[in-house]
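Write out the 3D structure for:
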Amino acid sequence: MRARVAALNTEIANAAKAAGANLYDLQGLFSRIKTQGLQVGSKRLTADFLGGFYSLDNYYPGSVGQGVIANELLTLLNNTYKTSFPLLDLTTVAANDPAGRFTPASANKPITLEKSK
């Protein structure tokens, strides 16, 4: 499946180049997030479940993830067309992103049950 997706992405890139069209590699961004993570403010977001980049379904990017995509596209436009669209402040976006508030359970901190009184 990965080989087929890579082949399709190559065909799309070649078609875009032949047509003189701009192309943004979204799969490349997702791969970078998976391998490197992303520092936003004091938090390191990852592609892991509850890692903060993806929403709770772990399929769609959360608000910060959408902001990263927007900033990547704005950067492409600014570089290509010599424009100066301002980028989103991801720290501000992160402050209101529910996906970033969840953290995976720590192996060093076992879950304990509270006894009811």
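Helices lie at 2-19, 26-36, 63-81, 90-95, 98-101.
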